[in-house]
Please model this.
Amino acid sequence: MRIVVIGGSGNAGSAIVRALGRRGVVAAPMSRSGKAIAGAPGVRADVVSGEGLGAALEGAEVVVDALNSRNPLDLRPFTIGARNVVQAAERAGVARVVLLSILGVERSRFAYHRRKRQQELAYLESPLETSIVRAAQFHEWSVDQFEAGSALGAIPVALGGRLQPVAVSEVAELVAHEALEPSGKRFTEIGGPEVRVSRDLARAWQQATGARGIIVNGPFPPSLLDYLRSGANLTEQHKGRITFEEWLSRRR
Model:
């Protein structure tokens, strides 16, 4: 079976390539760089321009889309990119697509989430058999905010925000399982083992790392705060086992 993982050099994509490898499948990580991951030869393609996309998907039975946009101001990979992937996948005769998405994007006004919802719809409205795995925020999401703020002496938290942070490795295992043994569900959800408030996570991170800085209410966009306060990013369906503190310990 040939599986192409779009965004295969990224944080989630590379974890999915490794999870598939543990199941005996050498997936093809696709990225603009064509970087090899965990011994799996990479393929080079650009979903926005479409360059190399047809050749990258040739012979693939399953496509896993774990693409992210490193530039929060350029969300074309989720819109133009998704449409290009659908067209190329149809031409290549791809049987199924598994998309990694985010919990509650259909209920969020945050621009990034709205574009992710457009990405979901591009696949769902296509002739391709589509499964979507919606995940809670990764453990890295909060830590990225904390580290950036700590450098300036202020650790930002989302006032009133609740999170169910999950390990990328556990999300990758679920995505790999869905790619190889489809559940038949359009949506599958996964979150971490605990629901935590943002300030609690910041304290745990400080304690684990010894980082200095004052914990402050961060200047997050109102639409993002509304999302984190609404509970749209929480789930009871699948829960990982790795807590935030355990993940910090392993990371160290």
About this structure: The CA atoms of residues 190 and 238 lie 5 Å apart. The two ends are 36 Å apart (CA to CA). The mean pLDDT is 96. The longest helix spans residues 111-124.
